[in-house]
Amino acid sequence: MPRRRQPPILFLAATTLLVVVCAIALGLLLGGDGDPDVTTTAVVAHAGAAVHDGHGSQPAAHALEPTPGAPRGDVVEGPAARRLAVPILMYHVLGTPAAGASLPELWVSKARFAEQLAGLHEAGYEAVTLHAVLHAWEHGSPLPKHPVVLSFDDGYLSHATVAAPAMRKYGWPGVVNVTTHNLGPDGLPRHLAQAMAKAGWEFDSHTLTHPDLREVSDAQLKDELRGSRREIRALTGTTPEFFCYPAGKYDEHVEAAVKAAGYAGATTVEPGIARRSDDPFQLPRVRITNADTGSTLVARLRSGAASAGNGPAGG
């Protein structure tokens, strides 16, 4: 009987090395999300200019997909869902501002953000979209017993590189209130925004250029509201239901224009916990800062002290 040939030792070693390298690469892609705290060098812009936020490494699109958590059985629907009060958290940039950066109070570090998510999760909160909240309030559709909305204003790269991977751990979606002129290589890249949308993230309008809508012409007001809605629909395939007032600035004329543009509601920078009884075009939010630990954030939400940490900047 002929002897069976044995694979060469070098071939076995090379094969083993290849398997190890692939395993490490896969682990980094699906589990790792970089250093715990990335220092940025940019200034936050609030006039529609594109923004660098220092998070240059971009995740693969499938790494942004949410991982569904285990069913918890704490879902409510019908009249109980209609009565739920829902905190809408307001974030801007995730990272660490450089010395002298504009509006440093709008930044939350990567480590602090992870701590805040862990605190919310341990307290029983589950993140949902504004779409889910609207349908629960209107139709009694199911919601978690303790829902929370995490909204991110403007459209920064860190929304894809920090927020999405961190929230993926819990299977949570977020809401990006995107200024569409920030979509691109200098802000939130379009392909990452599309990947986030496919993973269940909601994209709502924050205008084209982030102007003070009270000061623009009627023609520009219409374009800012409707043009941004068209761009988001073209990007994500979904028509935005909600609008977010730039810097929280609006009046009766602006609110009427938002309604006429076809939106179902709008968020503000006014402090508070959102309820069905609120004017849907004046929904309050809870400003989150780097001073909020996981435990103090939960305490704020449970006590209804949404005003803590809310200042004039941002939105």
The number of distinct structural domains comes to: 1
- What is the makeup of the main sheet? 8 strands, parallel
- Give the rounded overall mean pLDDT: 83
Assign the CATH architecture. Answer: Alpha-Beta Barrel
What would CATH call the class?
Alpha Beta
Low-confidence runs: 16-56, 67-71, 308-312
**At the third CATH level, what is the topology name?**
TIM Barrel
Structural class: alpha/beta
CATH superfamily: Glycoside hydrolase/deacetylase
Helix content: 25-40%
Give the termini distance in whole angstroms.
Answer: 80 Å
Descriptive report:
This protein is an alpha/beta fold and 315 residues long. The protein has a single domain (74-303), classed as Glycoside hydrolase/deacetylase (TIM Barrel, Alpha-Beta Barrel). It is 34% helix and 14% strand. α8 (252-260) links the parallel β10 (242-244) and β11. α3 packs parallel to α5 (157-168). The protein is globular. It starts with 8 loop residues before the first helix and ends in a 12-residue tail after the last helix. Residues 16-56, 67-71 and 308-312 have low confidence and may be disordered.
